[in-house]
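Ticket closed. Logging final result for CCA-adding enzyme.
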Amino acid sequence: MKLTQLPREFEQALPILKRIEAAGYEGYFVGGSVRDVLLGQAIHDVDIATSAFPAEIKSIFPRTIDVGIEHGTVLVLSDEENYEITTFRTESTYQDFRRPDQVEFVRSLEEDLKRRDFTINAFALREDGTIVDLFNGLADLENKVLRAVGNPYERFHEDALRMMRGLRFVSQLGFAFEERTKESIIENHALLEKISVERVTIEFVKLLLGKNRKLGIEMFIETKCFEYCPELKGRSGQLRVFSELPAMQLTSEVQAWVLLIDHLLLEEQDIRQFLKAWKCSNQTIRQVQQAFKGLQWRKEQGYSKALLYELQKETISIVESLLPYYQLEDEATLYIEAYNQLPIHALADLAVNGNDLMTHYQKKGGKWLKEALEVCETAVLNGETVNDTQALFDYLDTHFSQLIKE
Ligand code: ATP
Ligand code: MG
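Final structure:
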């Protein structure tokens, strides 16, 4: 098969391939971008594979950076774009079902394509538009089938992450596993335990965000892979309910975690441990906790002004975007407007600050100061006083003289 028209991203990178070829080596576009072009989808990263060894690539191109030279990857800098160029390689020694600790550079494209995970990820695209398809990936694309390259049992043994990658492709592409590939995942699912959580999490989040999440989660349950993912053991019932939610695609990691956590029937105080187990960042954890709290209030009694203030626009939008999964209406416009109408949006908007209070009351900073500021914040938000310096002093004098005298 030959493509008559290449997408802009490949056109732009053609001079790179031509230069590699002119130096006497082979160069191809490979990986997910070739698959995505064949599917008519937008592409994000252009990966180039070559028979040239890293040192040879560096001698062909004047400006390069060693980004992963031990894996054979050199970043080539060109005026418009930078390209990762990776030497054909085989991955010889796999230990403990994880990524190989040694790679061997080879001159053969076939060897390189053989180590790739699924047939639809194992195409190479030549500079003249020819698709190299050594494993009948084109037929699998046509039939929407995910088939391991070679013997699936061996391939999942070599690197068990491939099972999670497969599940996320089910969710992203709506493809089904070929029978032997699926059987092999069911048989080997426990190997996932050996894989670093960070790598599993990346794939799981992609699974949650896929267009065909329902299919992906169903297969995650059927293959039992969930049993070896953090904190999910024994939770197939809850995952099943989660898979049956309205099929709308999730759009952010935070949104996805909140919806999942709510369906696992966790409480706000369980979130930290759950997401720590998935090795999520503290920032993600905080955002999920806030959105989860917002969601519970919004579902049960609605937002107070103090809660709108605490959540801020971004989290309000996330909470609202989740309501349709509960057969409720997304009213982001209404509540963002309510948020905009709040008299203040941050402590810095208050007409007094810590220094003003210390000067006014002739007191050193301390616990009282933090409390006094909080009192002002709440009073202004609830409309008990206007946000004006004198009004705030008056308010504190009348209502909180005790706090200030102490
Ligand atoms: P995406 O579109 O999400 O980037 P991708 O298929 O390009 O998907 P990458 O992680 O960017 O995924 O990997 C690029 C290519 O490298 C894959 O298409 C596949 O050929 C190969 N690959 C990546 N990870 C593995 C793995 N664990 N085992 C075998 N081949 C892999
Ligand atoms: Mg990619």
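The pocket of adenosine-5'-triphosphate (ligand 1) is lined by residues 31-32, 47, 116-117, 121-122, 159, 161-162, 165 (CB under 6 Å). No further action required.
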